[in-house]
Amino acid sequence: MPVRLPEDIKTGNVAENLFHCNDISTPYHIRQTIRTLKMKDSADASTFIGQHVFLRGRLLAMGVYADDEAVFCLFLGLPATLVWQQFKSGLIQRISWDHDAFVNTTISTSSSTEPNPLAPHTFESCAARIISEASRLVDMQTIASSRPETEHAHAERAARAV
Questions:
Q1: Which of 144, 121, 138, 122 is nearest to 83 (CA)?
Q2: Angle of CA points 5, 7, 8, to nearest 5°
Q3: DSSP 8-class letter at 19
Q4: What is the rounded distance in angstroms from the CA atom of residue 9 to the CA atom of residue 26?
Q5: Entry pTM
Q6: CA distance linking residue 19 with residue 58, whole number of Å
Q7: Are 105 and 116 in contact, with CB atoms under 8 Å apart?
Q8: What is the tens place of the pLDDT at every residue in 34-87?
Q9: How far apart are CA 129 and CA 147, in angstroms?
Q10: Which of 30, 48, 117, 120 is the most buried (most CB within 10 A)?
């Protein structure tokens, strides 16, 4: 009796139908693309996060992506400026503290039926914090560049014009 193969295997569409992709190497290529994404500056944050969200969605649809890997890739793409490095260090520290508190609370309340008020950070929460910080930095730059001229500078400029 001949073995009957599913139509997907005969036509080579296994990867497309099982993983929503045309090629089995697609997850690898998407991961490589995510790891090369870089945020140029604070004004580029929404584009950077948007690209991550889109590519992360593709990997999640394939069932081959974890939240901790997504957060790690977000951190990889942050600018190498002092402000962003301090932000990243602070967020990593907060994540580790919150994770420890989450684990300790889960262990101590495992017998109770109350939900744990603490939750570990997710991709969404880290992305929201990055967008928030970028917005704050853009606002600070806008305010700094639109400050009115001081009286002293105005008087100096007026004296040079005469």
A1: 138
A2: 105
A3: H
A4: 18
A5: 0.65
A6: 9
A7: yes
A8: 999 999 999 999 999 999 999 999 998 888 888 888 999 999 999 999 999 999
A9: 27
A10: 48
Q: What is the pLDDT of residues 112-144, one digit of tens each?
A: 444 444 345 689 999 999 999 999 999 998 888
Hunting for tokens 């089995």 — which residue is that?
24
Residue type for 60, please?
A: L
Please give the structure tokens belonging to residue 22.
């045309």
The residue whose two tokens read 């929503």 is: 20
Q: DSSP class of residue 63?
A: T
Q: What is the DSSP string of 87-154?
A: HHHHHHHHHHHHHHHHHHHHHHTTTS-SPPS-----HHHHHHHHHHHHHHHHHHHHHHHTPPPPHHHH
| CB-side neighbour CA atoms (13 Å) of 132 | 8
Using the structure block, give the residue that is written with the tokens 């300790």.
104
Q: Using DSSP, how many helices (H) and how many strands (E) does the chain show?
A: 8, 0
| Cα 158 versus chain centre, distance | 49
